Amino acid sequence: MSRAAIELQCIGKSWGEQAVLKQMDLSIQEGQFTALLGPSGCGKSTLLRIIAGLETPDQGRLLINGQDATYMEPAKRGLSMVFQSYALFPHLNVADNILFGLQVRRANRQQQKERLREALALTNLEGLEERKPGQLSGGQRQRVALARSIVSGHRICLMDEPLSNLDAKLRHTVRHEIRALQQRLGLTVVYVTHDQTEAMGMADHVVLLNAGNIEQQGSAQDLYGQPNSVFTAGFIGSPPMMMIHSDHVPLDLWPSRRQYDQPHRVLVGVRPENLSLHAVGEQHVPATVVHQEFQGADAYVYVQLDDGHTLIVRAPHNRSVEAGARCGLSWDPVHAFYFNQDSGARLWTPSAEALTAVPFAVLP
């Protein structure tokens, strides 16, 4: 059974009057790849800096491997970090950049040599030892930063948006390399990103932050398949979940509608891949085709509802529709999610327990 490598207990942090982290509790398991995901300003980088010791929390405790590290010096926390900017010394070659930390700690030469050889092999940098950072590609520079983290020997690695400076194709390649290294070495990785594709593709555990709070956490499958709020549903998935006001949804597409006393305060969420296009019919949501985007295996069809909202339907790549054409939308109700329009909270499958928790719902 794994144990917690990092524990945050009621961590709070403010900048003046603005609360950046709001009494946050989080446990990160040993050997786990955890992604801190969220939009700009949600608090994910501040949280990482608190773990690293670069910021001090205003309240709460931080435990690293069971030891109170709330006010511990960064160098004593047993962590390594990989930054977006690589943080390489331009005047040092690859080998010296990788070994810099060991050289500062005056590790013996044999240990340095062995760790360098291992790190170069793991990051596919063999043969580049004498090159300076300016002679490397962006992907190679990021591998040097990873190799430096590996030779440190620390079991916990913090990564702050390390792929942001790379192009899309290179990000995909390095993403898989980071994940493979983490699994091979059994590292505990805390990875900050605003890119849900990175988080979902790499992490064992995704922590979605929103305005200083943990909105939802779990596996990527959990967040995608069982979002607990409009925020999660709209942030996870590309394209995200489509929201349709319940006033526009016919009864056939929402069989449980009568179980709600005020159904006009409900948002119905459906993933784009679960929406279907038809000719206009009574039991469909009427819409107008705006345009279509070819995406290889799929086509994204943009449609506008009569209330002006635009939705995206993921259709087969060979589906052809004309802009301006009237159409109807439908879905299997089993794929629909229901949310409180006011709070954004998920309304779960109606039951005695669920309905009593919803202020505007009544038992059938």
Describe this structure in words.
The chain has 364 residues and is α+β, with helices and mostly antiparallel strands. The chain is built from nine helices and 19 strands. It has helices at 44-52, 94-104, 109-122, 138-151, 168-185, 196-202, 220-225, 230-235, 352-356; strands spanning 4-15, 18-29, 33-37, 59-64, 67-68, 79-83, 156-160, 188-193, 205-210, 213-218, 242-245, 266-270, 276-278, 285-294, 298-305, 310-316, 326-330, 337-340, 346-347. It has a six-stranded mixed beta sheet, sandwiched between helices. A five-stranded antiparallel beta sheet has the order 13-17-14-15-16, with no helix packed on it. It has a four-stranded antiparallel beta sheet with strand order 2-1-4-5, covered by helices on one side. A hairpin with a 2-residue loop joins strand 4 (59-64) and strand 5 (67-68). The longest helix is centred in the middle third of the chain and has 18 residues, at 168-185. The protein is elongated, with a radius of gyration of 25 Å. The relative contact order is 0.11. Residues 351-364 have low confidence and may be disordered.
What ranges have pLDDT less than 50 throughout 5 or more consecutive residues?
Answer: 351-364
The outline comes out as elongated
Average of the residue pLDDT scores: 89
Strand order of the largest sheet: 6-7-8-3-9-10
Termini separation (Å)? 45 Å
Beta-strand content: 25-35%
User: Radius of gyration, Cα only, in angstroms?
Assistant: 25 Å
Number of helices: 9
Order of helical and strand elements: EEEHEEEHHHEHEHEEHHEEEEEEEEEH
| Strands, count | 19
Q: Which percent bin holds the helix content?
A: 10-25%
Largest sheet: 6 strands, mixed
Q: What is the SS-derived class? A: alpha+beta
